Amino acid sequence: MVLALLRRLAVLLVSALVASVLIFLIMSVLPGSPAQVALGTGATPDAVRALEQQMGLDRPLPTQYVEWIGGVLHGDFGLSYTSRQPIGPQLFDRLSVTLWLVLGGMVVALLLAVPFGVIAALRNGRPTGLVISALSQIGVAIPAFLAGMLLIALVAMRWNWLPPNGYVVPATDPVGFLRHMILPWLALGLVQGAVLTRYVRSSVLDQLGQDYLRTARAKGMTATAALRRHGLRNASIPVLTVLGVQLVTLMIGAVVIERVFVIPGVGSMLSDAVSNRDLITVQGIVLVLVVFALLVGFVVDVLYTVIDPRLRVQAR
Amino acid sequence: MNGQDPTDGPLLQVRDLTVLAGRQPLVQDVSFELAAGERVGLIGASGSGKSVTCMAIAGLLADGLTAGGSVQLTGTGELLTRSERGWAEVRGSRVGMVFQEPMTALNPTMRVGRQVAEAMRLHGTDRSTANRAAVDLLAAVDLPDPDRLATAYPHQLSGGQRQRVVLAMAMANQPDLLICDEPTTALDVTVQAKVLQLIDDRAAAAGSAVLFISHDLAVVASLCDRLLVMYQGRVVEHGSVVEVLTAPRHPHTRQLLADSELAPADGAAEADAGDR
Questions:
Q1: Chain A interface includes B124 (CB < 8 A)
Q2: Chain B within 8 Å of A59 (Cβ-Cβ)?
Q3: What's the rounded Cα separation, in Å, for the pair A222 and B179?
Q4: How far is B180 from chain A (nearest CA, A)?
Q5: Is residue B136 situated within a structural domain?
Q6: What coarse category fits the chief subcellular location reported for this protein (chain B) (predicted)?
Q7: Which of A215, B149, B213, B257 has a CA 20 to 30 Å removed from the CA of B155?
Q8: Domain holding B39: CATH number?
Q9: % helix / strand / coil in chain B, to the nearest 5?
């Protein structure tokens, strides 16, 4: 068990390392010198070369990579090509904002998907089940940004219940933070919840046909108690896979919802950096997102073995 | 064990039991009685309605199937009109069940001992008593090293071992009636005999009546006092094991006998089989 965990951890570290090399290489083969971008099209070749030298861009690639990754390991992501400010502190600020956004959205999604998915499975083929299936199908078809704009139009603009956009740091003003986050959380959570509901439903349906639930009923449980005490744990395994994928997709796709609600997250930072051709910033953000995705994969794998003892043996 | 007096009349009384899938009858007008401690075999080809009959008696019919008629259990009364909650009180305490497929009958994510203990916990036994009793029950079904086995997960057990665990769960509360739905069909031959012997022993020890479903006449003949033969959803013949096996009246019973190795007129049956 411990050995399997260590092996999985090694895979995580190697993957992160390989990813960092790939990201670095892709950024360095992109045409156009960052110094040229920083100085504008009117700059003389001499000035560009001087700035390149100052930025260290004239040195061999391996040296540049080692310097970059060495800094990253200490939380130093270098200086932005455009603002000349250190990237690290801003990146972590933005990251925490996006994490709040995405995790809150996932909580809303789970709160919706688990009960509705289970009910849809239990009422499969009956009116309640059909209604939930139809609603979740509609939810799947609605993009999160559209849900966000509808929420803003109704809740914020027409009824004036909540602020339409903006962000407040939770430590300084917890209530303001919640008031600003409710709509983005709902926008993400409703859509992701609709997707997740379908997975919960089919996963629970799979389990409902299993013999062990009949055994549990034969022991003296009602059908619903059998599902609660025995079925849900088994049903959670495929749902967990989807949950991991959703979390990563949300994190990387957060830019859309951050734009709609004017939230200063990592997604809008990435899109700004891309449009400014601030490659070093892009490089740092992409690395952090990739490492996040790898971490989620790692946690999901560990949770599998916690939930399902059969996987523990295979992992040995 | 619940103070049943065998002279009090039948333990289980099934009257005109009918099971419908929509409008299609799967089981029609099945009536029989089971005295306390009695063992009755239910035989028939697959699709004859044996399993459905038993599931109806245990309130475990699949969605979309509806039961009509009457099933009375002494001391509990009519079962068919009970709610799922009402059924749950009866199942596991007064009626135990062993199923055909041991490989999938246990929850793969829960330790075996806990699954056995749960059968008692559901009917009012406290946790520590149930946990201790679970190990004893595993020992009683001849599982080796029951202390260690109680902490194992189902996938670490063989099919025969899992079926013993299921039997241990079914007998945990010493039920008045044990329903066995083809309990040895999925096991290999050497294990079959042992599991049958255990069902025999455990049912005798608890004084449980047994309703034993099988398509295998040899198995039923060795365990049961009486036989019911089902064909196309109806009981076509019933009587003591000796009566049914030596003087079968219904053509379907004769067919079942001819298909098995227990044929009354051995020579003739074998000649028949050779012709086919």
A1: no
A2: no
A3: 18
A4: 12
A5: no
A6: membrane
A7: B213
A8: 3.40.50.300
A9: 40, 25, 35
